[in-house]
Amino acid sequence: MQESYREIFLSESQEYLKNISNCLVRLENNAGDIESLNEIFRCTHTLKGMSATMGYDKIAQLSHQMENLLDELRSQRKEVTTEIIDILFTCTDVLEQFIQDIRLKRDSTIEIVGYVAALQKFLTGDIPAEKTRPLTATSTSKEIELDPADQAKAKAAQDSGLNVCRAKILIAENCLMKEARAFLIITHLQRLGEILQANPSIEDIKAGRFEQAFTIFLISKESKEAIHKDILNISEVEAVSIVPVETEMKTHAVKHQAPQGQAAAQAQTEHSYIKKIQSMRIPVQRLDRIMNLIGELTIAKIQLVQQVQSAKIEPLEEISLTLDRLTSTLQDEMMQTRLLPASYVLDPFGRVVRDLSKKQNKEVDLEITGSEIELDRVVLEEIGDPLIHLLRNAIDHGIESPEERQAKGKDPKGKIAIKVSRQKGQISIEISDNGRGVSVAKVKEKAIKKGIITELEAENLDDKKILDIIALPGFSTAKEVTDISGRGVGLDVVKIKLESLGGRLDFESKLDVGTRFFLTLPLTLAIIKAMLVQVQGEILAVPLMNIRETIKIKRHEIKLVQNFQVIKVRDEVIPILHMDKELGIPSVSDELETTNDGLPLVIIEYEKRALGLMVNKIVGEQDIVVKPLPSFVKKTKGIAGATILGDGRVALILDIMSLRG
């Protein structure tokens, strides 16, 4: 029983912390936003009560101190300042670490004394007026050396294949609570491995007895790149230097111990959650299992319907129709449980933009529209990292510094816009910035230098083809590597990720105007409605959401324009694709020539364009269960997946986005 309450606590706590973070971003942009302030207070108060009931005392204590400071802001006894927003963000990060520890059932090593003291300083007004003394990356004490005992330990660990590195970490000059921030960093490092030595000592770091930088010897199975990324993602970290050393050390196994709740509080917990029965929380894994079973049920239903129709037994036909209707309804209802609003991924981006723009000393506004649009949970989870990469790239390379923007006659504050829309069963996400854009000339120069294209080819390529080179693996026009957007090796990964989801990536850029990325994704990856067509004896599935209409045409109506076959339908010229030739299906008959009532043509539509698919026969409409392709055929042009038909045959699902005409 306690485990079920624990799951509820984890789920709701995560939502409250996410809400707090989003509201803090809004409050920082508008100190008079009373609604956001009240929401932060409400979430913090609820989190305090929940954690106290469950016996998580440190969470309750820290939440209580945050609540006290928030109450001062609500009563207007204190004003909202950047420093207060910073400490609230820091404490929110700490609470998230506590929740993560509970989720992983591990003992938390986080101490809240420093954070509580920092909050109390704001409550009492005991904040030092002077700024922290500037410090360079070389201002740490002399380099520390491993003593003989540690060297022996390192050598033993080296034989077991672990890593050891020296991490130099510089905290931002304007960080008011460096001891709290440093302690959060140490906590991160301890999760990554084992801290062997520190300079100054861990105790001094916890007490704030250091300048702006400190050095840590760390043993970890993680790579130095992973450690670097993990620490640099912590706000108010100015710089990180990770240097591997020759010896390696053995890590200690993390103890796994479930947090101890208070048994006496069980009745109270039960009472507090009974009112939420109307919105039950179900583990995602269970929903996935149910969805898979519905997929198999759909296939079995199709098989049964086909058998009943061929047998022509009237009573069974009526039962078959009822089964068909009920299965479709069940499928539709289940599909709704897989849908989540885009805000699930987009809401935290406000915090991301806030932290990254501060680190870059840039001013950036983020505008999000369409976050209420729903899409498949699997799609939503998979696009998070690609979107973050594009966002980081826009802030790092796209948006100029305020001084550079003013020199260009622009608003000193840059803008990034994310727009989500839905069209015919597909989701479109547009990410745009009004920054410096991409120089076609620089891309062309770099591409020639790297041997990607020749000078002659460069002269014959249009700007769009030149810009497409940016998405090639390892290509970057950046002059230097930054800690925010990395080494320019991400855009190709973004493209591959979208294609693996049945989507695509397009972009356009104009120098000194900005860059726009267009992501197109399927609404769902599970079960879709499709039209089955026959091409030279093979059955293909065309997603119904992409079909405008199906018509019959006469061969003499087909015209040849610039070596492309086209047909005119209601004054619209539509290119024609012969699907057997497009997909390389060998000819087994010449049915097109012998059909008397016309040639079947499926007219599909995407991106406001129409295309005619010439097929041998239209079989009919059907719900199909989308199955992923095996790795050796994943990159086959024109194919997005496969499905199993009622008679056991496999039908390929067309990838409409790759059919260009």
Identify the notable features of this structure and list them briefly.
six-stranded mixed sheet, 22 strands, 661 residues, alpha+beta, 22 helices, Alpha-Beta Plaits, Four Helix Bundle (Hemerythrin (Met), subunit A), 23% strand
Report on the architecture of this protein.
44% of the residues lie in helices and 23% in strands. By secondary structure, the chain is of the alpha+beta class. The chain folds into 5 domains: 2-124, HPT domain (Four Helix Bundle (Hemerythrin (Met), subunit A)), CATH 1.20.120.160; 148-244, 2-Layer Sandwich (Alpha-Beta Plaits); 288-341; 343-522, 2-Layer Sandwich (Heat Shock Protein 90), CATH 3.30.565.10; 527-658, OB fold (Dihydrolipoamide Acetyltransferase, E2P) (Beta Barrel), CATH 2.40.50. The strands form 5 sheets. It has a 6-stranded mixed β-sheet. A 5-stranded mixed β-sheet has the order 6-8-9-11-10. It has a 5-stranded mixed β-sheet with strand order 20-12-13-22-21. Strand 10 and strand 11 form a beta hairpin. Helix 2 packs antiparallel against helix 3, helix 4 (82-103) packs antiparallel against helix 5 (113-124) and helix 15 (377-398) runs antiparallel to helix 20 (491-500). The longest helix is centred in the first third of the chain and has 28 residues, at 2-29. The chain is globular, with a radius of gyration of 30 Å. The chain starts with a helix and ends in a 7-residue tail after the last strand. The model is unreliable at 128-142 and 247-278 (pLDDT under 50).
